[in-house]
Amino acid sequence: MTPTPLPSPGAALRRRGLALVFLLPALALLGAFVLYPIGWSVVRSLFDASGTGFVGLANYRTAFSDDANLTALRNSAIWVAVAPALVTAIGLVFAVLTEKVRWGTAFKLLVFMPMAISFLAAGITFRLVYEQDPQRGVLNAAAVAVHDTFDHDTTYPGARPRPGGPSAAPDGSVRTAEIRSAEPHGPSAVTLPLVGLQPTGLPAEAKPAATDVPGDGVRGVVYLDVTPGGGTAGKIDPGERGLPGLTVRLLDGARTVATTTTAPDGSFRFPDHAAGTVELPAGDFAAPYRGVEWLGPGLITPAIIGAYIWIWAGFAMVIIAGGLANLPRETLEAARMDGAGEWQIFRRITVPQLAPVLGVVFVTMVINVMKIFDLVFVIAPGPVQQDSGVLALRLWLVSFGGGNDQGLGSALGVLLLLLVVPAMILNIRRFRRSPR
Q: pLDDT by residue (tens digit) across 126-139?
């Protein structure tokens, strides 16, 4: 066999030169848009806000001592710990389930569709979804509907006793004077005139207030003492209506001995008791249930993570479904023939064989959440933006959003880069180890 002649040194040099010529545009773009900004950020982080005074590592000390920066670091840690794992787990469940349903393709299309929506549009959408007003916020509309189904209490927020009538207690309840003895079959022993409501705002079942409540024991009527155009204060005038659905308690000192609810005409009865103090508890005047404060300081970060999962679960599902399609079916069929259940197959065969794909999705999500900015900026209202802040948002606020301290902003950018680099290296190693 004739040996293959080695290329001459000149030919090898020409090939290297030609390769360098083709690489020069890519290297120029890499230097201009990646290497130069990184280098300049490192240098700028060593100077003060004006960029003229050298401060050394002072900006990095501020990054780890300022409360707002520490909150951003904490929230970024929460994002890294929660969001990638949930996105990967939900994507895995969707990918497995879509293989077992006839309309799997349509389901994949619906789940992947949010990827076509920009983060700005998704943020505006979820800002409305999380709106506190149940008339506008979808989640709170559902929460109020479920709550009212199981706990439909009638309340009259803003109602208060008329001066000269029953007294308002410090806890917000309304109480009458102590009743020593109730006359049987006489006029109402107790009247509780309330004001602070509009007659047009009463429930549809409210009837004209009862002027006579027959029966034994303690009895009375709770009514709205408001007559358009006049009327006598403290007296039931024609046209004044009772307040139905109120809880009424009868007290013996501080102890509740009986409880009832007002009728449509506002009347109530305690036929088995001849004395006591009538109380309308503070709950009768509480504001109705308005849902959950999703955009409050306590839930703003989980709420934004929920929006992020809605967007990226489709991406994870598609990647994992691709890996699932390449699994050897012989292993799965053999496990079924040996009597393994679907959960055992999923846990002991499917997940271990999908581990490389799941690792790639997880690490990719870690890199992605470290740079999250759009959703937090759009969804979080101004008063709680600091409570929901992450490193990327804090970087922008410090540098351009009013802080005008690009020295501290550059330091935060360098920290963000240092946090992302390990995940990037891990992802690159995974790609190199994967079979070609």
A: 999 999 888 888 99
